[in-house]
Amino acid sequence: MRKFTLAVSALAGITALPAHAQSSVTLYGLIDQGFNYTSNVQTGRSGGALVGKHQYAMSDGATGIGGSRWGLRGAEDIGGGYKAVFTLENGFNINTGGLAQGGLMFGRQAFVGMDTPLGLVTVGRQYTVVSDMLASFSEAGEVPGHMGANPDDFDDLGHSIRVNNTIKFRSADFAGVTVGGLYSLGGVAGSPGRNQVWSLAATYKAGAFGAGVGYVNARDPNLSFFGTNGNAGGSTVNNMGAAGSATTGQTNPVYAGFASASTYQILIAGAKYYFGALTLGGTYTHASFDGLGNTTAGPNPQRYTGTAVLNNGEVNATYAFTPAFLVNAAYSYTRKASVGSFGEASYQQGTLSAAYLLSKRTRLYALAIYQKASGTDSLGQPAVASITQLTASSTDHQLLVRLGIVHTF
Questions:
Q1: Which of 47, 62, 242, 314 is 20 to 30 Å apart from 206, CA to CA?
Q2: By C-alpha distance, which of 337, 335, 341 is closest to 304?
């Protein structure tokens, strides 16, 4: 009899839960489809020299401004100002139906956590707090999205990177100040610092002005930071990019040669001001690949040692002619410093774009990005232009023109 009473009491407790705990699950997503003209993309090599041709192509969100996705977002109010939350977000290719992020089912984000009066705590696969909190100050937070990021998105303001095994905290807004932190456990037995990633960020917003600063530190970045997609390899594989072949183009030549770095550090500062219909923003990035030559982290065919440094400054402006029609422009300058045996390189990039909102959920857009490179890049070759998410040019310049549509649901 006592067992029966306990069972009835337990069942009553379960069925009573909805009376004091409200929950919701939301299906959401974004589809980005467009037509690209690219002045030059690498097609391989001939006689040892890079070969490239112009390209016309349909391109979906994998290389578009939004990143096509669908996701599930849930929340349960458990009382006292606390909510249990989760997000599962999938990236996909609309032209082929294939999975993005190297074939991962929920490659964009996958986390669970608790929303509290002090802030949000989550665990799982997530963006760093730096890309979360500072991207809005950069061109990647404007009309062009991550295609307008700095060359090869070396500072992750274009949200190219997701970090696995993370614990993340983002505070509530206290008098305009928000702080955040993330730590990723490397999970290597006997070596707790191996493959770890941590980042910190803080922003301040008051009226029309906003500013922020952030820092990322990734140990063995070829594995812990750039090697988190489903098709990533181990320390013998370059997860940061590729030198190409006779039939394939290079990827991320701005930094692909630095896969043997022991540590990758990023320091970013940004600000934005709203002058009515005009918005002005700017960012500064200092990034360093330290301890090069660590082949337990990644390959080093160039036999680099020491540190490679990238510095970038960017300014951007957006003007709203009407609430539905926006025009944007930006300029960025990136310099790879000469350290030890490294040659110097520089990348200048200009962006012009416009967006027209047909409704709250659908917009048309057009953008043009031009990049000019000079010097010697990370692969030890005359620097080639490499707009984020495109196949690198075989020359020192590259032009992209894109017409597209974004629909959210």
A1: 314
A2: 341
Q: Which residues, 6 or more positions from 80, have their beta carbon under 8 angstroms from its beta carbon?
A: none
Is CATH 2.40.160.10 the right assignment for the domain spanning 21-408? yes
Cα diameter, the chain: 88
Closest CA to 289 of 307, 311, 316, 266: 307
Q: Which residues contact 20 (CB under 8 A, 6 or more apart)?
A: 79
User: Residue 157 in 3-state DSSP?
Assistant: coil
**β-bridge mates for residue 350, sequence order:** 331, 370
pLDDT per position as a tens digit, 181-224: 999 998 888 888 899 999 999 999 999 999 999 999 999 999 99
Amino acid at 197: V
Calculate ∠ Cα 156-297-292, nearest 5°: 80
Closest CA to 287 of 319, 329, 320, 255: 255
Helix, strand, or coil (residue 283):
strand
Average pLDDT over residues 6-26: 54
